[in-house]
Design goal:
alpha+beta, seven-stranded antiparallel beta sheet, 6 helices, globular
Length: about 150
Amino acid sequence: MSIETTVIIEKSKLPTPQRLQEFISNSRLALKIDTDFEWGEHTGWLPCRYNKQETGFELYSESFTPAALIEEEFVTTEESALLGNRSYMITFVTHFKVLDALSAFLVSSCLAKLADGYVLENAEPPFIKADEIYKNIKKSEKEFLSMI
């Protein structure tokens, strides 16, 4: 079983991996991502460290058109309208390990907040506005840690 979290943003707002790490650190999260990658070129495992423990997630990104999402019946016309100019998706995939799921959650939440994006949990609507997830990031972090 895998868990997918997808962030949908405007590609022009995509931060560098270094800027994303800076935002994560400024959010007082004990997570360090490997910043030696390029969005759109890197696919697969991205290593991280959470409180000095090795962790990570699979990372995939691609452009899309809202019309294609509607045609594939992934979203309704109304849901598509929420996206505005957001036509780039970054998907974080984890398998079984709570620490991996935590790292994917933290990075995806910070990315969405930094780039004014929406989040899809398990790749299904509803779209969750970044502010809704980010405002509870520390509480959610504690909930993940209680499962370890």
